[in-house]
What we know:
The protein is α/β, with parallel strands linked by helices. It has helices at about 20-30, 55, 75-90, 105-110, 125-130, 135-145, 155-170, 195-210, 210-220, 225-230, 235-245, 250-275, 285-300; strands at about 5-10, 30-35, 60-65, 95-100, 115, 170-175, 185-190, 280.
Amino acid sequence: MSALPKLVAVLGPTACGKSGLGVALARRFDGEVVSADSRQVYRGLDLGTGKVTPEEMEGVPHHMLDVAEPDSVYSVADFQAGAYAAIDDILARGKLPFLVGGTGLYLRAVTEGFLLSAPPPDPALRRRLETLTTPELRALVEEKTGVTLTGGEENNRHRLVRSAEKALAGGWETAPGARPRYRCLLLGVTYPRQTVCRRIDQRLQARIDAGMIDEVAGLRSAGVSDQFLDRLGLEYRYILRYLTGEIPDLEALKDELGRAIKRFAKRQMVWFKKDKDVLWLDMERDPLAQAGQAITDFLNS
């Protein structure tokens, strides 16, 4: 049997430099980036998701950005199918694919080869599932899939309902039936907790200064529903509350949103630390050199 093609994944919590490192590595190794972020798939969600800008891409092609319309249902199976197509195309052109992002379930679906399908929505089943509490939905999904949900997935009610619907329809199967398609090198990026919190505060202020509040207001004006924005969580949920008056002023917004992002980053680390195969880079001591050596060894092995 022929060897599996190789894939490099760059993962870790928010505000730790995944996108920049992914671009730098792709430039060094003649690669292309496949984004693994559950919110960056949506068009028009840019500042609030930290979507890499064309300037920040530095000429490196990026895939799986802006592939869905706001208010649409987009599942992990949808992502997996799109990511597989992008990665296989990159490999076919003789380039090295880099899977870069912080959505743990999206990353694992590709790196571990979950057997997934996306059955059509079942309105009657969904109405029944909507009557369940969020903890009940989480328990149902975990029981049916064998996946422990963390990193924010366990509290995303919209995604839990869809995942439960798919699981009950027989549309989501995971390990031990997983079939890896790629041999993967997993590179983790993080900083000490205090540094992560400082970077989150700095990035939040920069995004507000760049017009993140106006972005959310513009989405609402364009017809994107408040329900969709609230389901996205974090920046979109809290800015929505600010725009509707539930959060009284800008300072309160920055305080509440900053604390929510820090809690989210902590949950992300809980998720990623469970994977013993991740090579964690020292982001304060030349991570590009560390990652470069690891990739060179990986490609030569």
